[in-house]
Amino acid sequence: MFVDKVKVYVKAGDGGNGMVAYRREKYVPNGGPAGGDGGKGADVVFVVDEGLRTLMDFRYQRHFKAERGENGRPKNQHGKSREDMTVRVPPGTTVIDEATGKIIADLTEAGQKAVIAHGGRGGRGNSRFATPANPAPEIAENGQPGQEREIVLELKVLADAGLVGFPSVGKSTLLSVVSAAKPKIAEYHFTTLTPNLGVVETDDNRSFVLADLPGLIEGAHSGTGLGHQFLRHIERTRVIVHVIDMSGLEGRDPYEDYLTINEELKEYNLRLTERPQIIVANKMDLPESEDNLERFREQVGDEAEIFPISAVTKKGLDPLLRAVMDKVETTSEFPLYEEEEMEQRVVYKFTKREAPFTITRDDDGAYVIEGHEIETMFKMTNFDREDAVKRFSRKMRHMGIDDALREKGATDGDTVRILSYEFEFVE
């Protein structure tokens, strides 16, 4: 089964907790702080494995949770940091953050790596908080939470050349006779529902990878039928091999087919119009194909090279394959996906820092404090230790949260909520 799009949850490892401990040595009744730091949590790293060809494995495992760091120990011993969690993906995988829609990584080359979720740093032990005013602090941090996110994986097949065209024009038949691939072939539309890849060897001993892409229909760029799922795979191909049924047996006009498919490619991604394109006039063994080809040549003019073939009788294949190979070799540095071609300039501009927190009023009257910075600080605070609670309160005041609560109308005894934790506002 070919799977080319899947949603996955990843969670990097939390950092290990720091420790509150003191030296206990003979003849040293009041030893200083000796709590070690926690270890770093594991990153979630995606690695390209060229042996994979589909996202099938992700249908059975959609949650990836990395190990948390080891907690700190006495005698200033730091906890162990965890090894990265490695997840293998096929070449051509694009990783997208579902919440923002931004591309996190575009993985195309064997062995290429990308950190998808970063592990949290370890919490500091109490020896880190010793000061002349407080030489024996009862403070230690919890580990920083690891990054977690919902991501979408999209696979776009990597091929040197891709066969495009309307359904039933003979793309699968062509791939089957020029390579060892065995795509499904039948006399009905959309026999091919997933891309098929085959290695093609020319008569002069050169080779390239050819993809048989599912047939397109009018409106594919807007998602009609399975348009987006099909068009996604064309983005990676270096050369477009446009297959046209020159017999006109289904009542379609070859030239209209040619214009329609090119318009769909343009509407989906304008950069596709820059790809080298070779026109294949297929089914030349059928009646009326010669007449249709003559009219087609007049309508197209000199804008593209046309190769008349018959995939069934294997006539005209060698010149076609040599031409495709030549195009592949001369476009080896052609961009495989859309890139912004803008002149880069360094501009120094003052940007106002976003507020580190927001305060809203809940339906039950509680004041709700939200924000990445304050929530992370909350999770890293050990509320079982009085000194840690006091430190958290000082940080809140330093961030201006107390003043902001007063401006919102908070009075003595009102409920304040951070995540699932509630406490009273005290003047």
Structural class: alpha/beta
Tally of DSSP β-strands: 18
Fourth-tier CATH superfamily name of the largest domain: P-loop containing nucleotide triphosphate hydrolases
Under the CATH scheme, which architecture of the largest domain would be assigned? 3-Layer(aba) Sandwich
Mean pLDDT: 81
Distance between the termini: 64 Å
Shape: elongated
Beta-strand share of residues: 15-25%
Helical proportion?
Answer: 10-25%
CATH fold group of the largest domain:
Rossmann fold
Strand adjacency order, main sheet: 10-11-9-12-13-14
Cα Rg? 31 Å
Low-confidence stretches: 183-193, 218-228, 333-343
Reading off the top of the CATH hierarchy, the class of the largest domain is best stated as: Alpha Beta
How many domains is the backbone divided into? 3
The description of the largest β-sheet is: 6 strands, mixed
The H-and-E topology, N to C, reads as: EEEEEEEEEHEEHEHEHEHEEHHHEE
Oligomer: single chain
